[in-house]
Amino acid sequence: MKHLLDTRDLTRTQAIEILDVADYMAQVKAENRKLNVLAGKTVVNLFFEDSTRTRLSFESAEKRLGADITNFAARGSSVSKGESLKDTAQTLKAISADAFVIRHSASGAPQRLAEAGWTDIPVLNAGDGTHAHPTQALLDAVSLRQFKAQRDGLDSPRGTDLSGMRVLIVGDILHSRVARSNLWLLKNLGADVAFVAPPTLLPVHTERWKQDWGLEVFHDFDDAIATKPDAVMMLRIQKERMNAAYFPSAEEYTALWGLTKERFENLLAQPQEVAILHPGPMNRGLELCAEAADSQNAWVLRQVSNGVAVRMAVLYLLLTDGSSEKLYSGDES
Fold it and tell me: Organism's domain of life (predicted)?
């Protein structure tokens, strides 16, 4: 694996290895340990789009692995003066960058950076337009696998997939790179995936995904809940990407597609325990009720914590010659 651009690029074996390494990194983080496996390497965080959780998560991961960090923000840089992505990347490579972490508002920008021949170092996609957000999908998968292991009484989730799990992804699918990356990854790991959204918030590719990936689609949230999901992932309404009225009002959206108190109680009434996920930031009262957000079923904070572990795992696997087995044996050099 040279780059991490999209979860569609990962084989099932590669995905499980990343999840396994992330579980190990979560233990390292819980023990407040640092691994100096990236000592002497410089990671450049290229953020052309505003971010808080993803940027801080990558910085924390890089520090825990002992890397040197260069943060680049488009505002106030030469980009604001018209410098191209190519020239920016080549300039930063010239100051001894060993990897790029890039977040960009344009779909395909990380792939362009990785494949255009502008640089020969690893590129990690931290979110591009409405296209992909692979590390978010990976941290969601880590969280779901931990939930499954905890619920089923397994000693460890290591080596397991998500077979037998049913996941509802609810809300603004149209503008969500998280939904797309989760579809590819969760299906590859054996989960059943269903999108729940109004027709106006579904991508034009939905029918093809139904045929090619076995995706299920619901326009009625209550009908979807009746299928007894193991996890419900609520998506943020991305108002900043909307230039039209995709639903009549916030009140109607909540009534039809929000995780209200009544719907949450219906989930709790199911025989199996259900996990509630959200990529953040949450719009409480719009996408989900406070009762769900603050419940023991909510895995939102675990997702944030697992984000650091996943990014540590991906950076380790891309930037070292070490294998996951070296980590488990204690030979991290």
Answer: Bacteria
